[in-house]
Amino acid sequence: MKISPILQRFDQSCLLLLVLCCLLFFGRLGVPGLTDPDEGRYAEIAREMLVTGDYLTPHLNFLPYLEKPPLVYWLTAGSLKIGGLNEWAARAIPALSAIGGVLAVFWLANILWGARTAFLAGMITATSSGYFLLARLLTLDMSLTCFMTWGISLAYVALRNQAHHFLPWAYLALGLAVLTKGPVGLVLPALIFFVWFAAEKQWGRIRQLWHWGGALLLGTVVLPWYILVGWRNPDFWSYFFLHENLQRFLAPQVHAGQPWYFYIGVLAAGFLPWIFFLPWAWKASVPESPSPEDSRDRKFLIIWFIVIFLFFSLARSKLFPYLLPGLPPVALLVARALSLNPASAHFCQTSWRWTLGISLSLALLGLIGSLVVAAFFPDVWDRIAFILPYPMVYCLILAVSFILLLTNLPSLTQPPYLLLSTALLLCLVLIFAWEKVAETRSPKPLAQIINSRWHADDIIVGFQNYSQTLSFYTGQPLYLFQTQGELKFGLKQRPGNPYYLHWPEQLPELLQQHPNFFMIINHDNLKFFHSLYNGPMTILAQWKNYLLVGTPHDQN
Q: Both 216 and 277 in a single domain?
C-alpha cells in the first residue's frame, strides 16, 4: 500500500518532533533537586495522597489544601507510585503535558498550513525559553496549557472546517483544563471565541460551538470531584470560587505588586529567542495574496494571544507562568512567517535585515553588559557569579547566529533551520543554568543530612517557616511554629491538627515530649528560640537565610 507524499511528510515531521521533544523535556530531568515552594508543594501533596489513600481531598502537611483542583496531583501520585519518590517521577507529568501541548500546536498548524509549518510551529513552541523551562518544573501551568491548547484548537477546526465531530473532544480537553486549575480553563477559551465572533461579526455562529454530547462529557469530567469535595469540606465552594479565583483576579491579595505592563517583560523573556522575530512575523506571516480563510486564521491566532495577555494583565495577581497558554498562538504566527518562501526575497526584505540587526545589537548589548558587571561591579559579581556565565554564553550563541544570517552565506538556504539549531543550543544552556539556580532553591541537601541522622523518635520543626520540599524528601510532616500562610484554610477545617503550634508556650512542651529534633530556623530568630528552649543544640547546615539545627542524640 502506497503512502501519499503529504502523509509521509506528516509522519516524518511528527516523529522527528516527538523525538526532539523527548530529548528536550526529559534529558537531565531528574538532576536538579525539587525547589521551594511550588515543586515541593505539588510533589508533597501527591505523596500525601499515596500515604493517606485520600484522593478526594488534597492534603498539604496533612491539612486539607483546596486552592487548586486535583488532576495534576492524581497524575503525579501515579507517576510517583510507578517511578518512585524522586525528581524524575515528580516532573514527568509537566514534561508529558509539554509534549501534548506541542502536538496540539503541530496538529493545528498542519491543518492550517501543512506539515512543514507544523514542524516549525512545534519546535518554536518547544524551544521557547518559558515553555521549555516550565516543561521541566512541577507546576500546574503546563498541564493547563496542554489541555487549553487542545480545546481551543479542536473547537476552532470544528468551526473552520465544519468538522463538528471534533467538538466532543474539545469539550473533554477543556473539562480536563478545569480539573487542572479551575474555571480559568473554560473562561479563557470562552472569551477567545466571544471576541473572535465579535471581530468577525458572526454572532450567529456561537450556537455552532454547542454540542450536547460534549457538554455531557465536560460535566462528567468536572462535576463529580467538585460536588464530592464540597460535600466533604463544607467551606470549599466559597473558599475556592470566591477567594481562590474571583478575589485573586479582582483584589491584590496574592502575588500582588506587579505593574499592568508586567507581562510585556514576561513575553520578552518567556518567548526567547523567538521574541526577536515576533514584530517581523506579525506582518510577514501574511502571504502576498492572502485568502479570506488565511486572514481569518491569522486573526484568530492574534485574538487568542491578546485575550490571554489582557486577561492576566488586568488581573491583580500576576505570576510568570500565567502567560504560558499565550505562547502557542505567537509560536504559530512566527512559524507561519518563517515558512513562507524560504531562501527567497522573503528573507531579503529590509524588515528582515532590520530585525536581524536589532536582534544582533541586543544580543551584543547583553554580552557586553555581562562583561561590564564582571569587570566593574565586584559586589554584584560575587552574588551572581554562579549564574552569570550562562547568560554570557546565551548572548554569544545568539550573536553568532544573527551574524551568520546577516552575512547571507550561500549555504544558509534555510534560515528557519539555522534558527532552530540555535534554539536547541540555547535550550542546552538553559538546562545547566537552571540546575545552578535550583541548587540555591532546593533544600534537598538539608533533607539528606536529616535522613542520614534520622532516628525513629525524631521530629522536624519549622520555626516560622515551612519547606514543603523538605517534607517530600524526608517523608515526614513538619511541626510548624507560628506558620499558617496558605495552610490557613486547612487549619480552619482541622483546628485540632497536632502539627501546628500557635503559641510560644506550645513549643517547649513539644520539645520536652520529643527531645530529639531537627529545626529549620531563620538566623534572626535564634534569639527568640533560645528564650523558649535552652537545651543542647548543634548547627548542622545553612541554606539561604536559614539554619538547620539539631539535638545531639547521645546527649538525650
A: yes
The amino acid at residue 446 is L
CA atoms within 13 A on the CB side of 252: 7
Is the Cβ–Cβ distance between 477 and 535 less than 8 Å?
no
Q: What is the DSSP string of 457-517?
A: T-EEEEES---HHHHHHHT---EEES--GGGHHHHHH-TT-TTEE-STTHHHHHHHH--SE
Other beta carbons within 10 Å of 155: 24
* Cα Dmax for the chain: 84
Instruction: Report if residue 57 sits inside a domain.
Output: no
Q: 350 and 300, same structural domain? A: no
DSSP secondary-structure letter at 247? I
**Co-location of 362 and 321 in the same domain:** no
Q: What per-residue confidence (pLDDT) applies to 346?
A: 53
Residues 335 and 350 in one domain: no
What digits encode the pLDDT tens for the residues 436-448? 999 999 999 999 9
Q: How far is CA 370 from CA 265, 266, 339, 373, in A?
A: 19, 20, 34, 5
Sign of CA dihedral 348, 349, 355, 360: positive
* Whether residue 321 sits in one domain with residue 230: yes
Give the pLDDT score at 145. Answer: 98
Kindly give, in sequence order, each residue whose CB lies less than 8 Å from that of residue 196, ignoring residues fewer than 6 positions away. Answer: 299, 300, 303
| Residue 403: domain span | 345-434
Same-domain check for residues 138 and 226: yes
Tens-digit pLDDT profile for residues 31-40: 999 999 999 9
Q: In angstroms, what CA-CA distances link 194 with 175, 197, 209, 214?
A: 18, 5, 11, 19
The chain-wide mean pLDDT, for the chain, equals 89
Q: What's the domain count of the chain?
A: 3
Are residue 385 and residue 298 in the same domain, yes or no?
Answer: no
d(CA 126, CA 25): 9
Q: What is the mean pLDDT of residues 419-444?
A: 95
Q: Determine the Cα–Cα distance for residues 355 and 348; give it in Å rounded to an integer.
A: 11
Digit-coded pLDDT (tens) for 218-251: 999 999 999 999 999 988 888 887 777 777 766 6
**pLDDT score for 343:** 47
